[in-house]
TrEMBL record:
NCBIfam families: PRK08183.1 (NF006040). It holds the Pfam family NDUFA12. InterPro entries: NDUFA12. This is NADH:ubiquinone oxidoreductase subunit. GO terms for cellular component: respiratory chain complex I. Residues 92-136 are annotated as: Disordered. PANTHER family: NADH DEHYDROGENASE [UBIQUINONE] 1 ALPHA SUBCOMPLEX SUBUNIT 12, NADH-UBIQUINONE OXIDOREDUCTASE SUBUNIT B17.2. GO terms for biological process: response to oxidative stress.
């Protein structure tokens, strides 16, 4: 069952293609939610225009790009060359911890009056609106 799950559920963990690539990959680090980051050094097929190495992430659970914290996001997109595990960065006291995007999930923000919110009551109509009709 696990082999079939790996083949047909690319959004849940690593795929078979990723597992094959892991053989030549170098483990770089892991973030606080369990995502694991890799790179392929001395890659002969690397981008000739930019000369960048291949980098990838194996998500801990559901594959969601918004689950990558800020420091790792910069490393994954070649904004910085040093991975967060090689730095001694400490978050400032005013910085909030990273949260993934909850849109489309049960934890999504639903404002008051939304048809999807727990409190579906909308404000009562006040009668101060006149509908437009063509030719009027």
């Amino acid at each position: 069952m696990s082999v079939l799950t790996d083949i047909f559920t690319w959004w849940n963990g690593s795929t078979i293609g990723t597992r094959v690539a892991l053989r030549g990959g170098e483990f770089v680090g892991e973030d606080e939610v369990g995502n694991r980051y890799y790179r392929l050094k001395n890659d002969p097929t690397k981008n000739a225009a930019f000369g960048t190495e291949r980098r990838w992430v194996v998500y801990a659970g559901y594959a969601d790009a918004s689950a990558i914290p800020t420091g790792w996001h910069g490393w994954m997109h070649h904004t910085v060359d040093t991975p967060p595990t090689a730095e001694t960065y400490a978050a400032k006291e005013w910085q909030k911890p990273h949260r993934s995007n909850k849109t489309g999930s049960v934890e999504a923000y639903r404002p008051k009056g939304s048809t999807l919110s727990a409190d579906r009551r909308r404000p009562a109509a006040t009668g101060d609106y006149d509908a437009w009709s063509p030719g009027a």
